[in-house]
Specification:
Elements: H1 2-18, E1 25-30, H2 38-53, E2 56-61, H3 72-77, E3 83-87, H4 110-117, H5 124-132, E4 136-151, E5 166-169, H6 172-180, E6 184-187, H7 193-199, E7 204-208, H8 209-214, E8 223-225, E9 231-239, H9 240-244, H10 248-282, E10 286-288, H11 292-302, H12 304-325
Parallel strand pairs: 1-2, 1-3, 5-6, 8-10
Antiparallel strand pairs: 3-9, 4-7, 4-8, 4-9
Helix pairs in contact: 2-10
Length: 327
């Protein structure tokens, strides 16, 4: 009897030991930029907050270790990875209306951009809803600043300077803009632009001041023109099935951390752009601020792009354009 009881106790103990420990939730995030970039540092803000307030662990894979920028929407939407950071422009194939932020000179001031990119705004709200239909939930937007043009030799002074030049672009309608001005657009991922400039794959660059700084593009380009024809936004997205599989408490923690991260990154960008101009200049770049007359020529030459985009963007495009113009 004693041996039988002992065996039962032993079996019970072994059975208990064999039970798996409760698995903690791990979310992997893919980022094309270096962790030192402001988008990488912003992910660290989210990681610190979420790990402090929940049982979620966040793993960040920076510098396109897992996916390039153009691969992120599909990777997240299909569930290959839980989270990712992608340029808003990468959704243009499914949702042409997202390129409202890249329509030339529509959102050409910080006040307009902040209003348009605010959660639930009449511009952003419909776009977030459309992206959700691809299988990815937008957690927050990451400000990347106004678009600038890079060149070798002299700074660009007007649309005629794009004539016959190969231009690095990162979105369909930025490509149409370059084409409208006589350039030859070449779609190049952010992680590959340094080599493209170094090798002369393109003559003219297109990026944000953050990219100039984090990638040290002054090593391969000589001048930057603060044309600000478009606003560059990145999105942090999560696979919708993963989101639905989380507990209410986990979703609440993620939402709160995302709000904190979004406020932090937009406020940071406001100050950063001012410093980035000084940094570019200090590292030998010529920094050109277009005059009022030059901007008028840029805008006049760019106007046909908006009409072309509206034909492709449909009712949603018209909806967000009207909302943007009403800001």
């Amino acid at each position: 009897m004693n041996r039988s009881i002992g065996a039962m106790v032993c079996a019970a103990m072994l059975g208990f030991a064999a039970l798996p420990a409760q698995a903690e939730t791990t979310l992997r995030v893919t980022l094309q930029l270096p962790l030192a970039s402001h988008l990488g540092q912003n992910l660290l803000v989210f990681k610190e907050e979420i790990e402090k307030t929940s049982d979620i662990t966040v793993e960040i894979y920076d510098s396109a270790q897992l996916y390039k920028d153009n691969e992120v929407p599909e990777a997240v939407g299909s569930g290959q990875i839980e989270m990712g950071v992608a340029s808003l422009a990468r959704y243009v194939g499914d949702i042409p209306a997202v390129d409202i932020f890249y329509m030339p000179f529509v959102l050409d001031s910080e006040a307009k951009v902040r209003a348009a990119a605010a959660p639930g705004s009449p511009v952003r709200g419909p776009l977030d809803a459309a992206i959700l239909e691809t299988g990815a939930r937008v957690l927050w937007w990451q400000a990347y600043g106004g678009n600038v043009l890079l060149s070798k030799g002299a700074a660009l002074k007007g649309p005629e300077d794009l004539q016959g030049k190969k231009v690095r672009v990162f979105g369909k309608w930025l490509g149409e803009w370059a084409k409208e001005l006589g350039g030859a657009p070449t779609l190049i991922s952010g992680s590959e632009q340094f080599l493209a400039y170094q090798r002369g794959t393109v003559d003219i660059g297109m990026t944000g001041l953050s990219g100039v700084s984090s990638r040290k593009l002054w090593e391969v380009m000589d001048a930057v023109t603060l044309v600000n024809n478009a606003d560059i936004e990145f999105l942090v997205v999560m696979n919708e099935d993963v989101w639905q599989g989380l507990t209410d408490a986990q979703r609440a923690a993620i939402t709160a951390a995302a709000v904190k991260a979004e406020i932090a990154v937009r406020d940071y960008m406001t100050e950063f752009e001012k410093r980035a101009v000084e940094e570019a200049s200090a590292n030998g770049m010529t920094v050109h601020q277009p005059t009022a007359a030059e901007l008028a020529r840029w805008k006049a030459a760019s106007a046909p792009v908006i009409d072309l985009w509206l034909k492709d963007a449909g009712p949603l495009g018209r909806q967000v354009l009207d909302a943007a113009n009403a800001l």
